[in-house]
Amino acid sequence: MLEPTVPTVHSIAEFRTAYEDGQRLPGLRSGCGFVTATWGLVCPRCGKADLSEVDLSGRGRVVALSIQHVPSDEFLNEVPYAYVIVELEEGGRIAGWVAGVADESVLSIGSRVHWAPSYKPGVQFARDDPSPEGGSAP
Ligand SMILES: [Zn+2]
User: Fold this and answer.
1) Beta-bridge partners for 123
2) Please, what are the domains in the chain?
3) What is the mean pLDDT of residues 55-82?
4) How many Å lie between the centroid of ligand 1 and the Cα of residue 13?
5) How many angstroms separate the CA atoms of 33 and 86, rounded?
6) Whether pLDDT at 2 is above 70
7) pTM higher than 0.85, yes or no?
8) Buried b (16+ CB within 10 A) or exposed e, 61-94
9) Interacting residues of 83 by C-beta distance below 8 A, sequence separation 6+
10) What residues contact residue 73 under an 8 Å CB cut-off, 6+ apart?
11) What is the whole-number distance in angstroms between the Cα of residue 73 and the centre of ligand 1?
């Protein structure tokens, strides 16, 4: 999963295009082992320029969320939704959103999510296992 797919050279345009087109979710792994979903030229932890591009699974857990009832224009048809920070299984945190979240009974800190690319803007995630009506995850 985390084997380098591109030696070192990567551009911010390629990075953005990959996930905006829903092709793949690129990340960078430093020689020190740090993994980030954020594009850069040096490791944000140790500062070395020994980054290799990797494909991230897009699976992770919500570590922060903010439920939005007042959208920006591009999310006019999506409210309510949750703006989330997801900590990915491989490491790295990425900002995204989850559709159809009116309150924290639907999605909360610790919920498992996966990248669910669509034609919609941003980095869209979906819950792994939507709980049955009124239920809560074990
Ligand atoms: Zn490092």
Assistant:
1) none
2) 12-56 (no CATH), 59-127 (2.40.50)
3) 94
4) 23
5) 19
6) no
7) no
8) bbeebebbeeeeeebeebebbbbbbbebbbbbeb
9) 65, 66, 67, 68, 95, 96, 97
10) none
11) 38
Q: What is the pLDDT of residue 80?
A: 96
Q: Helices (H) and strands (E) in the chain — how many of each?
A: 1, 8
Nearest Cα to 27, choosing from 35, 19, 116?
35
The amino acid present at 49, given as its one-letter code, is A
Q: Calculate how far, in angstroms, residue 94's C-alpha sits from the geometric centre of ligand 1.
A: 18
Ion ligand 1, residue ranges at CB < 5 A: 30, 32, 34, 43, 45-46
Question: Any alpha helices (H) in 22-129, and if so which ranges?
Answer: none
Ligand 1 centroid vs 92 CA: distance in angstroms?
Answer: 12
Give the max Cα distance, the chain. Answer: 49
Q: Which amino acid is it at 71?
A: P
Burial of 125 (0-12, 13-18, 19+ CB in 10 A): buried
Tell me what the mean pLDDT of segment 26-50 comes to. Answer: 92
